[in-house]
Amino acid sequence: MEHANLPYRVIAAKCIYCGNCARNCPLGCITLERGSAHIDAERCVRCGECVQACFAEAIVRGA
Ligand code: SF4
Ligand code: SF4
Per the CB 3.0–4.6 Å rule, which of 30, 39, 49, 53 could disulfide with 20? Predict the structure, then answer.
């Protein structure tokens, strides 16, 4: 797929710092710091679990 490797990222302004994404990431590559979640793009396997876990719709895909 053309966009298969686009990174996931957190829109900090929408993040409510609930931690759901970090708890559901199978790689454990999401950390919470300075008021929002942060995805380690180097370790992320683009599985999409964090998007499903985020009720605030704060995680999107793309640059
Ligand atoms: S896409 Fe998957 S591996 Fe990447 S941050 Fe989200 S839950 Fe973790
Ligand atoms: S699940 Fe969404 S709102 Fe909650 S910490 Fe993660 S990015 Fe922020």
Answer: 53
Listed by start position, the domains of the chain span 8-61
Q: Is the CB of 6 under 6 A from ligand 1?
A: no
State the closest ligand 1 atom to the C-alpha of 51, by its place in the atom list counted from 1.
6
- Which atom number of ligand 1 is nearest to the Cα of residue 46? 1
Any atom of ligand 1 within 6 Å of the Cβ of 45: yes
User: For residue range 13-51, what is the model confidence (pLDDT) as tens digits?
Assistant: 999 999 999 999 999 999 999 999 999 999 999 999 999
Instruction: Write the CATH number of the domain with boundaries 8-61.
Output: 3.30.70.20
